[in-house]
């Protein structure tokens, strides 16, 4: 049985077959999780008709999953340290597969929502464990290339998930969007048992009960309140401000507790004293707010202004996924050879420029369809050169024993950023559409409203340059793991 490399200071430059097998297992688990997240979006109307329910109730198949995911992410770092990453990975894939089975046989909407919560528990643990496992095994010299492989599900699942879901529902039945997970899940469990390295759990690792009671309900409450903003239309609605205020208060309480009341917090906020780790997370926040928010607008624009069907709208954003798939492996190779800073600047520049080209196409309407597709392709190229390199840089700055908690902090940051981006763009678009309608604008010509929203996304993407500009070159002679062995502290520079 393979074991974790104990000599953290020595990693080869070449990626061997063993590391590819480990990365492949992680990709399989991630792809199953991320694909299912996007597939269910096209089943919403089908469930409304099948179960005779309302869209508000059916929407909880997505909301329940998201909240369960948010609730368990803070626990994943402690669980990985306490029980070992391999055991938790196997358990999380098992939970997700079991949840898929329960979804497929659910006789009513209530049990379907409950089964989606089970899926969310498994999915939340998977999202952080894959980062920890891959980074521990790859080391700083190979992490860029391996993270590029791990990023494949991130870019392909949103692009092809709605297409796959629509095909399964139209050709077979909605149950098949869950049935297909069973053989994949069983294969992932079998391969993980054989391939993933066994690490040493730390039975003495104490559990931060107070931190769990503060953060596990606080984060879902905050995200739920933000998710209600688009449908409620205002922050003043009690369905928005009560969960947002409650979640914020609990999170603030956790911050105080983690910094001043315990030596073993659920999430180690002291990692933010690492300058490079903080800068990369700040850049990641702006990047996700802009791109995730824009991803909400693209399908809506295609359907509302260009009269595309949902399937056509899904196909319309495929160029973004293709663009990301092209640059992601190239960015990984260049990062391992030359460092990430230049790649990140190029990636963000492509995102900003691509959004600008798309915004130009929005003004031109149908006559500028080539500009829309060109803009989406450019954004995809930029995303492939930005997302996983940012994550890799953040993980590179951590010592091996910090990776599980660091992965958790990164995922919490990503979850909050995605919620902020979705809520912000939805509110801006809704307010602009209401203003256009009040002014008597032609409902078929509301391109100005979308233009304002896309310009906002461009500005937010541009803010990513600020933390990137403060990143400094990491000395070639040392790596975070070398530094860890000498002084017990992780490096604070990036390459």
Automatic annotation (TrEMBL):
Q: Does the keyword Cell membrane apply?
A: yes
Could you tell me where this protein is found in the cell?
Cell membrane
* Keywords linked to the UniProt accession: Cell membrane, Membrane, Transmembrane, Transmembrane helix, Transport
Q: Does the keyword Transport apply?
A: yes
Q: Which family does it belong to?
A: Belongs to the major facilitator superfamily. EmrB family.
Q: Which parts of the chain span the membrane according to its record?
A: 57-76, 88-107, 113-134, 146-169, 175-197, 209-227, 239-260, 281-301, 313-331, 343-363, 369-395, 416-433, 453-472
| Superkingdom, natural source | Bacteria
Q: Name one GO cellular component term.
A: plasma membrane
Q: Which PROSITE patterns does the UniProt entry name for this protein?
A: MFS (PS50850)
* Record membrane topology: Multi-pass membrane protein
- Sorted alphabetically, which InterPro entries does this protein's record hold? EmrB-like, MFS, MFS_dom, MFS_trans_sf
Residues in Major facilitator superfamily (MFS) profile domain copies: 22-476
Annotated protein name in UniProt: MFS transporter
Which molecular function term from Gene Ontology is one that the record holds? transmembrane transporter activity
Which species is this UniProt entry from? Mycobacterium szulgai
């Amino acid at each position: 049985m393979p074991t974790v490399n104990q000599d953290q200071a020595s990693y080869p430059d070449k990626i061997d077959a063993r590391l590819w097998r480990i990365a492949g297992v992680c990709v399989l688990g991630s792809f199953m999780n991320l694909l299912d997240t996007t597939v269910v979006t096209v089943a919403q109307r089908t469930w409304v008709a099948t179960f005779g329910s309302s869209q508000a109730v059916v929407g909880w198949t997505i909301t329940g999953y998201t909240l369960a995911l948010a609730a368990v992410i803070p626990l994943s770092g402690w669980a990985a340290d306490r029980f070992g990453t391999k055991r938790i990975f196997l358990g999380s894939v098992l939970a997700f597969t079991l949840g898929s089975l329960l979804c497929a046989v659910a006789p009513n909407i209530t049990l379907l929502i409950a089964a989606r919560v089970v899926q969310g528990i498994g999915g939340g643990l998977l999202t952080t464990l894959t980062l920890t496992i891959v980074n521990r095994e790859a080391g700083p010299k190979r992490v860029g290339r391996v993270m590029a492989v791990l990023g494949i599900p991130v870019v392909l699942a949103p692009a092809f998930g709605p297409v796959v879901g629509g095909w399964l529902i139209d050709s077979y039945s909605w149950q098949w969007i869950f049935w297909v997970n069973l053989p994949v899940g069983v294969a992932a469990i079998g391969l993980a048992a054989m391939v993933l390295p066994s690490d040493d759990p730390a039975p003495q690792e104490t559990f931060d009960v107070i931190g769990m009671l503060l953060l596990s309900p606080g984060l879902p409450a905050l995200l739920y309140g933000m998710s209600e903003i688009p449908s409620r239309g205002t922050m003043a609605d009690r369905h928005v401000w009560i969960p947002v205020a409650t979640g914020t208060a609990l999170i603030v309480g956790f911050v105080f507790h983690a910094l001043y009341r315990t030596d073993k917090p659920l999430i180690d906020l002291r990692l933010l004293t690492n300058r490079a780790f903080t800068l990369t997370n700040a850049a990641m926040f702006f990047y996700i707010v802009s791109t995730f928010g824009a991803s909400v607008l693209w399908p809506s624009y295609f359907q509302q202004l260009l009269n595309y069907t949902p399937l056509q709208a899904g196909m319309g954003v495929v160029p973004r996924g293709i663009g990301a798939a092209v640059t992601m492996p190239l960015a990984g190779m260049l990062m391992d050879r030359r460092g990430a800073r230049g790649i990140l600047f190029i990636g963000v520049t492509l995102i900003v420029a691509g959004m600008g080209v798309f915004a130009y196409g929005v003004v031109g309407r149908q006559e500028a369809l080539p500009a829309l597709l060109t803009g989406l392709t450019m954004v995809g190229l930029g995303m492939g050169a930005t997302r996983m390199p940012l994550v890799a840089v953040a993980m590179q700055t951590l010592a091996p024993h910090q990776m599980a908690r660091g992965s958790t902090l990164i995922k919490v940051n990503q979850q909050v950023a995605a919620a902020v981006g979705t809520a912000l763009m939805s509110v801006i678009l809704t307010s602009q559409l209401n203003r256009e309608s009040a002014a008597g604008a032609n409902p078929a010509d509301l391109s100005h409203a979308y233009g304002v929203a896309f310009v906002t996304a461009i500005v937010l993407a541009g803010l990513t340059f600020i933390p990137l500009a403060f990143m400094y070159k990491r000395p070639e002679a040392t790596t975070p793991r070398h530094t860890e062995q000498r002084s017990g502290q992780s490096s604070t520079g990036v390459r």
